[in-house]
Amino acid sequence: MNQGPLVFLGTFFALATAWFGFILQPELQIGSQQPFLIEDSGQLYPTKPAGLAKQGEDVYRANGCFYCHTMQVRPQGLGGDVARNWGARSGPVQSVSRDYLYAEPAMLGSQRVGPDLTNIGLRQTNEVWLLQHLYNPQSLAAGSTMPPYRYLFAKRKTTPGQAPSKDALPPDNNLPGYEIVPTDDAKALVAYLLSLRSDGILYEAPTLYVKPATAPAATTTNASPAANSPAK
Amino acid sequence: MSATISQSQPAGTAPDANPAVSPAETDLSARVLLLLFLSAALWLVGGSVLGLISSLNFHKPTLFADCAAFSYGRSHPAAINALLYGFAAPAGLGVLLWLAAHLGQAKLTGIPLVILGWLLWNVGVTLGVVGIFLGDNTGHEWLEFPRYASAFLFAGYLPIGLAGLLTFKNRQPGPLQMAQWFILAAFFWFPWIFTTASLLLVIWPVRGVMQSVVGWWYMNNFGNVWLVLMGLAVGFAFAPKFAKAPLYSRDMGLFTFWSLILFGSWAGIPAAAPVPSWIPAVSTLGAFLMVAAILATFLNLTKTLRQADRHAVRTIPELFIPFGVLAFTVASLMAVVSQPIAVSVVTNFTWFIPAQQEMLVYGFFTMTMIGAIYYIVPRLAPVAGTDLLLGKASFLLCAIGVLFYVVPLAVGGIIQGSSMNDATVPFLNVVKGSLMAIRGSTLGELLMILGNAIFLLNLILMLFRFFKTSTTVFLAGANKTVGVGA
After folding, report:
1. SS3 for B7?
2. Domain-embedded: residue A216
3. Is residue A230 part of a domain?
């Protein structure tokens, strides 16, 4: 018997099932998710990153920050993510698929050499700290293995008496006669980091949100259906 | 000298079938594969050196602070992609083409196709690695090459795959040998997964976390299915050859094949992924359905190899390929064990993951292919009476190297994961706690680089001697006519 066709068809069938199961089916389920309207504030979550933060996303990708940092908070009870305060929501605080709606690309990461950055914009709101950390992580976290990103900064000679540049890092005693000025890439990257926060309210991971449904839905027939079952 | 590695003669020959070709003729037709092997070996050395450069970041984080290209986030993906696309794919495809021709007792068909494909493919890999250095990384692991590079890979694969199918088609009729199943499936697997992933991640990206789903799917199907198909094709073809005995069990071989393509292709979605929970659940199921097949493969191939004469001296390929079988078993079991949530909660996001990948990509796949190439090249470029240089040493360097890399990282990863899950341990202590393991693994990298370099050196020497003898023969003829004394 010529088994060539059997192998071909078998391979094709296997590829097709894996494709339908793991590509098409998930795409149908979550591929067309929309941002969620937060009823109280009328705001949408997640919001589209704009301007500088959007450029910073490219810097984050190009420099491979995601080989050492994840962007995914695991649910409470799974590991120490929540206890380490990497989450933002209270209650079940894990990341959910909708959080990544506008990530281009989605860089969830596979390694935690450094801490999770899902909510770094909530944890660390000081732009100067972030810039300084980027320039010299070891100066702020002794023993850190994060490489310094000096190539994202310009080192300029200063003349005595000259006023420092507007966005220069705080003067460093180890570098007399020089100032360190972040490049556009560094500024964009930090804007991106500051924009990272998943404190939006989602029904998949509810938080501050007290469901009216604590009063049984059956008795209050006119309870807002939108509040009980937010649109998918 | 080049004995056939096919075990069964066709019972009846179809009227229009090509006449069976002798192994020597096959080898003569397959010389073009030397191109693939040589470039693969160059990328293997280049990629492993890049890997070492990226690891140096952990010895001295400030080392490349002013050098964007060598910073960890660029040199690390450049190394991985050089190994996967520069070495693994062409080495595997070259070996598969040779096997397809030999097992089918046919000549290698489509030599111009192979040359064209090889050229385009290597242009693609070069562009891709340079692209990563320049910051054009796509952001998707194992598919980091920017689209201008992927286009070349795609264009390069097509002619090579076509040559594979044409060669396969010219085989002698009769039931397929076990390795031929794996070969045929492998030729189809890659173009399908590569096109799907490139289209959905790079060309018309799907939204949000769907990108991660496609990415995990691709990584699993590339590493745990495609590389495994190619590596096991070598295992199933060479084990009977080394033992000079038939395969222990064909039924077990078929079981491996079907399990791998049907269930192995589901695995790889991390258990705690932020996606609807049925996706990781099905993935875990797929991983567990593989357990029996992994053990069956190990049993089948070791039982086959055990039939060998115990006192016969082992050739160098007979060291590399059995090591690959063992590493396949270990790497696959590591993947299965770390799939369910109870273990994944510790191992995920730790150094355990790269340890598993290295066991698979280097311990299993690379070792298997180095063994096969050491076997094949002297047959393509025969030179009388020459031995491999430091053959055994290169095996020991590669084998000990991969263990020195994998064991510290796997153990270190488990420690890292446990302490990371304990929020009372400050994060910086977790960081410092895993430094020993990372730095230890660099020793393994060094040993592997040496082993890889000897491999490259041997290929160059073999080719050099071969071309020298053939040109001497040629010149000797010319000298006589011209009358120039030596």
Report:
1. coil
2. no
3. no
Exposed / middle / buried, residue B268 (Cβ in 10 Å: 0-12, 13-18, 19+): buried
Return the structure tokens found at B208: 């949000």
For the segment B455-480, what is each residue's pLDDT rounded down to a tens digit?
999 999 999 888 888 777 666 655 55
pLDDT band at A227 (very low <50, low <70, confident <90, very high): very low
| pLDDT higher than 50, residue B343 | yes
**Are B217 and A83 a contacting pair at CB < 8 A?**
no
The domain tally of chain A equals 1
Strand partners, A37: A44
| Cβ separation A144–B428 shorter than 8 A | yes
- Predicted confidence (pLDDT) per residue in A14-33, tens digit: 898 888 888 888 888 888 88
What's the CA gap between B77 and A64, in Å, rounded?
8
Instruction: Confirm whether A120 is domain-assigned.
Output: yes
Nearest to B89 by CA among B238, B236, B234, B226: B226
Mean pLDDT value of segment B363-381: 95
A46 cis-preceded (ω within 30 degrees of 0): yes
The neighbouring-strand residues paired with A166 are none
CA B161 to chain centroid, in Å, comes to 16
Residue range B164-209, pLDDT digits in tens: 999 999 998 888 999 999 999 999 999 999 999 999 999 999 988 9
- Token look-up 């494709």 returns A19
Which residues 58-97 of A are in CB contact (within 8 Å) with B? 61-68, 70, 72, 74-75, 78-80, 83-84, 94-97
Q: Which residues contact A94 (CB under 8 A, 6 or more apart)?
A: A73, A74, A75, A76, A78, A81, A87, A205, B272, B274
On the question of pLDDT at B347 being above 80, the answer is yes
Q: Decide if pLDDT at B262 tops 80.
A: yes
Q: Pinpoint the alpha helices (H) of chain A.
A: 4-19, 25-30, 51-62, 120-123, 127-135, 137-140, 184-195, 225-228
Confidence class for position B450, pLDDT limits 50, 70, 90 = very high
Single out the residue of A22, A46, A49, A23 nearest to residue A34, CA to CA: A46
Q: Is the pLDDT of residue B5 over 60?
A: no
| Domain ranges, residue A109 | 36-195
- B188·A112 Cβ contact <8 A: no
Q: Is A26 domain-assigned? A: no
Q: For A42-70, how does the pLDDT look when each residue is reduced to its tens digit (9 = 90+)?
A: 777 887 878 899 999 999 999 999 999 99
| CATH code, A101 | 1.10.760.10
Name the more confident of B227 and B474. B227
Q: Is the peptide bond before A105 cis (omega within 30 degrees of 0)?
A: yes
**Under 8 Å between Cβ of B261 and B185:** yes
> Does A22 reach chain B within 8 Å, measured CB to CB?
yes
How would you label B204-232 residue by residue, b for 16+ Cβ within 10 Å and e otherwise?
Answer: ebbbbbbbbbbbbbbbbbbbbbbbbbbbb
Query: Is there a contact between A33 and B353 if contact means CB atoms under 8 Å apart?
Result: no
Q: Which residues pair with A180 in a beta bridge?
A: A155
